[in-house]
Amino acid sequence: MNAFIVSLITGLCGGIGAIPIIFLKRINEIFEDTILGFAAGVMTFAGAYSLILPCIEDGYVFQAIIGILIGAFFMYILEKYMPDDKASGNFTLVLANIIHNIPEGFVIGAGYEAHGKGTGILLAIAIGMQNIPEGLIVSNILLKTLNSKIKAVLYTFLIGFGEPISAGIGILALEYIKYLIPFSMAFAGGSILYVVSNEMIPKSHCRGNEKKATFGFILGFIFMIFFKSIIKE
Predict the structure, then answer these.
(1) Is the pLDDT of residue 217 over 90?
(2) Which contiguous run of DSSP H or E holds residue 120?
(3) Where are the transmembrane segments (predicted)?
(4) What span, in angstroms and rounded, lies between the C-alpha atoms of 124 and 108?
(5) Are residues 111 and 103 in contact, defined by beta-carbon separation less than 8 angstroms?
(6) DSSP H helices in 19-60
(7) Do residues 6 and 124 touch, judged by C-beta distance below 8 A?
């Protein structure tokens, strides 16, 4: 299975996460915060152990430090100048989430090129697990604007197509610029850690469900340990 197909499946996970909106009258806040915490644990493992640690183990400590800092700063700038999840217009909301998916696709492509199929699949699992609760949240926002559950789900599926496109870009770029691989991996790891700390954890801790979200985080981290042990490079 190549990186493009894996990233396509990963991108579609957002739409899969949106499907329950069709059957539910109202999303339970405890469930939403718990699964968001789970996704945060998954992403933390992927960023630290699948992206940053390999750079350090290969001796690229300086590139890792610089990549982490620039990756985090990049996400800060992107967040500052792009519309947030509460944007009222359909177009601006879709655009914001497509742009958010671009670095995720790049992460998958970079993982395949830099450390092989096993790392690429592991990262795809991590990002896919994050996209499921994200899709649920995004579709819930779209539902309030579109007043149609079917349209909200379809829009959420369409948003995910940014990932396979950017994965292809990541593969092509790293194929010709091998010396940038350690930096690129650390850049992606820093971006992930920023999103987890600045968005996912605060969102899961702001409605009184902190403990449940925390145990969701721990379970997500353990989930990735399991997959790391069975997926070989």
Answers:
(1) yes
(2) helix 90-146
(3) 6-23, 35-54, 60-78, 152-173, 179-201, 213-231
(4) 6
(5) no
(6) 20-23, 29-45, 53-57
(7) yes
Among all chains, which residue has been given the structure tokens 């369409």?
Answer: 158
What does pTM read for this prediction?
Answer: 0.74
Q: In angstroms, how far is CA 41 from the centroid of its own chain? A: 11
Residues ≥6 apart with Cβ < 8 Å to 117: 1, 233
AA letter at 57:
E
Model confidence over 76-131: pLDDT tens digits? 887 777 655 444 444 554 555 665 566 667 767 766 666 666 767 777 777 787 77
User: How far is it, in rounded angstroms, from Cα 4 to Cα 36?
Assistant: 26
Compute how many other C-beta atoms are within 10 angstroms of the C-beta atom of residue 34.
23
Residues 44, 221: Cα–Cα separation, whole Å: 7
The radius of gyration of the chain from alpha carbons, rounded to an integer in Å, stands at 17
Is the CA virtual torsion 163, 96, 36, 104 positive or negative?
positive
